[in-house]
Design goal:
alpha/beta; two-stranded antiparallel sheet; 18% strand; globular; disordered N terminus
């Protein structure tokens, strides 16, 4: 992770679930060639988790100049192929591993790239777990500084299994400002704490809408909810992302706003959050911090 130090400054870590751990079991959870794995999660759907995962991944690759992978772990509702403009199916290497599809400097793997567009996956839990195992350890990721995992929404079996099968360096919680979303975000934090995954912080998405005529911010979903929740739970507040048309259109067109309009205020916000994440991961390395799953 020496490359991280060159591109981003160091920052502090206040992890709600941070616990140290060492041993052979923790090492067995690692994927060869990947330094850190972070989860982008939410307690419920519809809060912009995948949008955050995409723009964060592209910012890590292009602003922080890191080797980045993006895993779409939402098997039932994969959206990364559309948001990242991925075409075709992954090729297979000589050792029978899938080769991730790369765009905008990010290596991507998604169930959406493996099935026909619009097909519904009617799978039970064991089949989902097998698919996730193949999309993690059955992929030739090469050497990555960071693998970003776009988690499925909620706190069910899939989320717990991913947390137990991968050595996650931390989790980023995405929420909108309103109370009902923050209530589910708290559940997500508590789930990660139960499997000893440190919380990197909470990001407030759709914080406000800025009027294009008068530049006045309108707090449609409430104001300051995520900041208050972070303070109450002892987490780091990573920042506010405004509700902007460019974010939505970028996702629909497969050109993330950090690519289409890198100098915009919201792109700078994503870049700042990426740098905060990198700083915390580097801080963990310096403190010889490694989370361990206690089964």
């Amino acid at each position: 992770m020496n490359r991280l130090r060159r591109h981003c400054s160091l920052g502090g870590l206040r992890g709600f679930a941070a616990q140290s751990g060492k041993g052979a079991h923790a090492q067995s959870l690692k994927i060869a060639g990947i330094n850190d794995i972070i989860a982008v999660a939410s307690g419920k759907g519809g809060v912009g988790k995948s949008t955050t995962a995409v723009n964060l991944s592209v910012s890590l690759a292009n602003k922080c100049r890191l080797r980045v992978g993006l895993l779409d772990a939402d098997v039932y509702g994969p959206s990364i192929p559309i948001m990242m403009k991925l075409h075709g199916k992954p090729e297979v290497s000589a050792d029978k591993k899938m080769i991730p599809i790369e765009n905008y400097g990010v290596k991507c793997m998604s169930m959406g790239s493996l099935v026909a567009s619009g097909d519904a996956l009617v799978w039970r839990g064991p089949m989902v777990m097998k698919a996730l195992e193949q999309m993690t350890r059955g992929v030739d990721w090469g050497v990555l500084d960071i693998l970003v995992v776009d988690m499925p929404p909620g706190t069910g079996d899939a989320q717990i299994s991913i947390s137990q099968r991968l050595q996650l360096s931390g989790a980023l919680i995405v929420s909108t400002p309103q109370d009902v979303a923050l209530m589910d975000a708290r559940r997500g934090v508590k789930m990660f704490s139960q499997v000893n995954v440190p919380i990197l912080g909470i990001l407030e998405n759709m914080s406000y809408f800025k009027c294009p005529n008068c530049n006045e911010p309108f707090y449609i979903f409430g104001k300051g909810g995520a900041q208050k929740t972070a303070d109450e739970m002892g987490m780091k507040f990573l920042g506010e992302v405004a509700l902007e048309t460019g974010i939505r259109s970028g996702c629909d067109e497969g050109v993330p706003i950090v690519i289409s309009n890198p100098d915009s205020f919201v792109s700078q916000t994503y870049g700042d959050i990426a740098q905060k994440i990198v700083s915390m991961l580097e801080q963990n390395k310096q403190q010889h911090f490694h989370p361990e799953i206690n089964l």
